[in-house]
Amino acid sequence: MKKFNIELLFVLATCLVLPCIMGLEYGREFFYLSFCILTSLLVILTCEGDKYKIMFFTYFFVFLFITLSFFYISNLPVLVGPDEERFYTGLLSYRNNYDFYMANSIAHIKDSYIVLSSSYPIFGMLLNPIMDMYAISGPEIAIPINFIMLLVSVVIFKNILLGRVKSNYWLFIILCLPSFTYHSSIFAKDILSNFIVFLSLYYLFNRSFLLFIITLILSIALRPYSFVVVAIYFIFIRKEMKYMILCSVFSLLLVFLFSGLTGLVNTVFTTLYLIVSPNPLGSEYRVDYLPLYFESIAFFLFYITSVYLNFKSKNFNLLIIFHLALISYASIMAVMAFYGSISYGFEYQMGQMGGNVVRKKLPIVPLVILYFYLSIHGKNNKFKTVNQEAT
């Protein structure tokens, strides 16, 4: 716990001053370089594992992070879509009339009992006061805030896994995955939502139940199905096979009850798409998605390799519990897709997967990375369920 507190203080003390001195309105390059140096030091000073592997990983991390960040500078606007515009409008409203904005947000949250609230006022109440601290008027202020939350999320996840894996430096690959660098570079709620999910998970593992309930409620307010994400991670990390079976069966039953066979078919499609998305062979090509296409290909290759390695090492428990976790999450997305179609007056059809899966798969991506690690090290790190460990 002491080491964890030191890590967090190191991260926060360094990161919080960066937006004050970087002149983000004149370019993001300084922040990306500073963040990269900070993270590299954090990996070298705090991570466990072979020191040569850690150094090689650090060089790889620096190269990939700088390449991606400079690509996004040229090809990805901070306000990339209507959601981002609306979140930024909320910040402007907050700055123009703090009292009016806060009163409206609190009234909306109370009227909707928090968990049924729109994510816009929740996002605004949590982050707008922090963004307003800095003398940066443009939407670029969201970038350092997002990357700080992403880094803290990785530190939290690393400490949750402490003692459960033999090394942990590889977790920092999350920071330079195209999917996370993309969503950290725009004015959106996704990184905040993931941060609160991991915070809730941390409090659950440490039996701080009051803080767990508070953070869980906040995570649900930002994304209604966040409690499912917390449950999936908790069950997977604790290797509770029977609970993961129950979770997946219950999720599939919900899909069938609400959307029938169409929903079950879409759950299968969504499960596959959680690994390979966006589709690199799809008809709609987006320049800003170029790194994400390479990520999809890499994930597909790692997935095929992981299945082969698990069969070879007879690590069937890992294969089963991981795919049940994917099915559980995909089922919830299928239900959300059904409700989305109905609410907009459209017919629910095969192929509908809950909106933008590229964005909505983010909560489950760290679990996929953990699965890849366990699969590659399966021979020396056999995945046993709780019952098998007891015997």
Walkthrough of the structure:
Helix 10 packs antiparallel against helix 11. Helix content is 71%, strand content 0%. It has helices at 2-15, 18-21, 29-46, 51-75, 82-96, 98-111, 119-131, 142-160, 178-184, 190-205, 209-222, 226-238, 241-273, 290-312, 316-343, 357-360, 365-376, 386-390. The chain folds into 2 domains: 2-222, no CATH class; 228-390, no CATH class. The mean pLDDT is 85. It has 18 helices and no strands. It is mainly α.
Describe the structure concisely.
The chain has 391 residues and is an all-alpha fold.
Provide tags for this entry.
2 domains, 71% helix, 18 helices
Bin the helical content. Answer: over 70%
What's the mean pLDDT score? Answer: 85
Radius of gyration: 21 Å
Strand residue content: under 5%
Structure summary, number of beta strands: 0
Based on Cα principal axes, name the global outline. Answer: globular
Structural class call reads mainly alpha
Distance between the termini: 30 Å
How many discrete domains? 2
Following the backbone from N to C, one meets helices and strands in this order, namely HHHHHHHHHHHHHHHHHH
- Given as residue ranges, the uncertain stretches (5+ residues, pLDDT < 50) are none
- The tally of helices reads 18
Major beta-sheet overview: none
